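User: Quick sanity check before I run a bigger batch. Here is a single chain. Can you write out its predicted 3D structure?
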Amino acid sequence: MSSRSEDRQACAEANGIHVVVKPIGPACNLDCAYCFYLEKQALFSAGEDFRMSDEVLATFIRSYVHAQPGPVVDFVWQGGEPTLLGVEFFRRVVQLQAPFSGRKTINNSLQTNGTLLDDEWCVFLKQHNFMVGISLDGPREIHDRYRRDRAGNGTFDSVMRGLRLLKKHGVAFNVMASVARETAARPLEVYRFFKDEGVKFIQFAPIIERLPEASARDLGLSLAAPALLDGQERNRDVTPWTVIPEEYGDFLISIYEEWVRHDVGTVFVMNFEWALNAWLGNPSPVCAHARQCGRSVVLEHNGDLFACDHYVYPEYRLGTILRDDLAGMVEKSIRSGFGVNKESALPEWCGKCDVLAACRGGCPKHRFLETCHSEPGLQYLCAGYKKFFRHIRKYLRVMATLLENGLPPSYVMDAVKGPLVIKRGQGVSSK
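Assistant: Done. Predicted structure follows.
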């Protein structure tokens, strides 16, 4: 099994600090209805350029490399839409990284909506071995429902053109598919579309946003800030596009049932990889399902560092890369309780849950419900997570047994056909 960019993140988190860089801030050429980052423009002054200066870029690259004790340094570039900066900005990135490449392995990942990719971009990305994450929600009708440009036009054709250019030039890529409320009703249509397009690596990201409380509206924001793990009353009203918890569980189950019969070892769904990883007792490579968080931070275009991609709000600002020590800012985040609270603030009810090892309470941003015992801090997707993780346990047991016997997890597809017989040194067969 492989988890590609997630393996890179896990390595970074195990050895040091993981930074998601927003070199263009929240600026984007699209106007996706469900995007939680576009509105962050309201947190900056009018007329903000939203372009990372060479001083900030050079200082960050130097600081980031020095903060990593391990041999690998993973750079992750997001937005907004980072390709708005043009290829020349990233040529400068590679140039600034070059002096460190002799003693460190430098990796780069770029998350993009794909609409601005062309041959020049793809030649560059291939030449410098960038891993590209492309945002694509599924077939045209599903994708275009929320992912539109600033004129209100669907972006499916532009994104597909970008994806096919990546394939043409042999650029390594994966797909980030957002699961909105309507998408959850069409799981196999979405999954089969990706398979038909030759997509081998997919991550399904549930859309969860709350309507704003007074504190968010005061900042000029139309979505709620993260739920606080302090027992305070919080608004539980979600946006119309927010996925329904149990429907998200059903969405994953439907795809898993097809995947486990036909595609194990050839299509890699990150959500399924994480589940197997948890079953094997390994630390989570993704922060949402880790015991604690706090070492995966976000660098804004102006050099400000924040505790998390979902926590780019004034109260979570840790300092600036131009004046403050990067490692020191991360330790400040951890000492403040930001990361530890993910585990310590779990409701007692969660501590007794049979799928806690896989879920770990999910992302703290979405802990705005109460348990059946009126405990605050329950994760919004709890019902969906339970449904999914409980359903797939029978398959995870088989895959774990296969791995223990030195056999590939893909043999689970034989087990689905009938009782599995494993003979050491003789492979696997079904009765």
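Residues 1-15 have pLDDT under 50 and may be disordered.

User: Great, the batch can go ahead then.
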